[in-house]
Amino acid sequence: MTTYIVKRILLMIPTLFLIVLVVFGLLQLAPGKPTPTQASASGAENTQSMEGRESYRIFKEQFNLDKPILLNLRYSLGPEDIIEDITVLADYARPVCPEDGTTVADCLPAQERPDSASVIAAQDRVEDLGTYITPALYEIAKTNKRDDVRAVAISHLSVNAQYKLRNEFSGSRSAEDEEYNKVVFKKNREIREWTVAPDATGADIDALLAEKWTPWMQEPENVERFDYSFNDKFFITFGDTRFAKYLSNILRFDFGISSADKQPIMPTVLEKMKVSAVLGFFSIFFAYLISVPLGVWSAYRQGTKADEAVTIGLFLLYSLPSFFTAVLVLKWLTVGQPFDWFPTGGFQSSGAEYMTTLERVIDIGYHMVLPVFCLTYGALASLSRYARTGLLDVIRADYIRTARAKGLSESMVVLKHAVRNGMIPILTLLGTLLPAIIGGSVVLEFVFNLPGLGLYMLDSIFVRDYNAIMAITLVSAVLTLVGILLSDLSYAIVDPRISFD
């Protein structure tokens, strides 16, 4: 048994890796992306100002949104790969030619001027390429024939060429990191000043290049910085990606911070998981507690009027959507129409922090009566039918007739022989019920205003909080794998003929 458990746990590792890879890829390929404003549909538009662009650039770096998803080949980019985006930005800055035919220097016809969407996309691409395109930007600034294109290249060069800070967005920087960051911050402040106005002349650009950028590019430190060895290229290709950064964080049990509220993900997930765990555990507990005896009773009364009545009643309950029932019980049992027996929602009453432990448990139980009922009744029909079918298959077996022939009491035959072996179909479902702690209660958490994982997942999807979505998905995957393992192990407990040795 121990060997089997160890093998299954080891098998979970590559399974979890594949789950994370698939879900991560789907999230990155989904339309839309997080923005600093998060809840605003116009978030991308608010990043057009200089301050907005800088804030958005820092936001993307903080959550690794500026990196490619799986493979990073940016070290091979040259001037020809970015000249189109630089030209778009330069054209957008040019004045529009008047329709009355008035002559304006270096103007561009309105129909040839790039639209805002193209400009924002070009800005995003140039910013996301980071330091990898520093040599390409320098080459464009030095050799391009258009002065406005050269000026735009220098303005981005003063941003992309900056040095990276150590653990910039981490709260656990060492003293050495702090000292290094002070030096780098001073260097970056100087680099940010090496820029020109959009309408700078060729002479101004040449003077800046000769005085600042050319000596800087020729420094041994920077020559080595942009001369990538084979090992550097290998690490960048597979290591400097969004997925690699996320996976390295997971291996350290660090799920990052929320892009919505800038708070660590894991404490929030654990806090909300308490609510979903209470709701899911008691729902599963009562579902099995009621459905198994009901299925056994129905199996031994197969074909009777009582069996038919129970079957009809259970399937009537099964046909009622949980959200519909939740709205009805809220109306009938919480707001005084006709009864006012339960609270309208929430996990605890206000002022619960001043209650004793026993009072808090009673208060939580009082709040969870209606949600647990709504989440439980739908499972009664399916679980009881599985229990009934499994027992019907068993009670006709030869060993059951043999047990009766030995003179064993009917209760002993049912409980010790029939029920144990007839529970395998029910136990198989256990592997799928644990993840229901998260997914199965989304609607009910919304209706009853329960601050659980389901509602947190829904809110995270709306604001595209990738870190939160990935953390909840990983928790759900772990629960699924643990549930399947527990389901398999329970086979050996209820049926002595099954062994994993």
Automatic annotation (TrEMBL):
Q: Name one Pfam family in it.
A: BPD_transp_1
Subcellular localization is given as: Cell membrane
Q: Does the keyword Ribonucleoprotein apply?
A: no
- GO CC terms in record: plasma membrane
Main localisation: membrane
Q: Does the keyword Transmembrane apply?
A: yes
Which chain regions cross the lipid bilayer?
A: 277-300, 312-333, 364-383, 426-448, 468-494
Instruction: Cite the Gene3D superfamilies for this sequence.
Output: MetI-like
Q: Which residues form a coiled coil?
A: none
Q: Which InterPro entries match?
A: MetI-like (IPR000515), MetI-like_sf (IPR035906)
The way it spans or sits in the membrane comes to: Multi-pass membrane protein
| Keywords, in A-Z order | Cell membrane, Membrane, Transmembrane, Transmembrane helix, Transport
Extract one GO BP annotation from the record: transmembrane transport
The Swiss-Prot or TrEMBL record describes its family as follows: Belongs to the binding-protein-dependent transport system permease family.
Protein's name in the database: Uncharacterized protein
Q: What is the lineage of its organism?
A: Bacteria, Deltaproteobacteria, Bradymonadales, Bradymonadaceae, Bradymonas
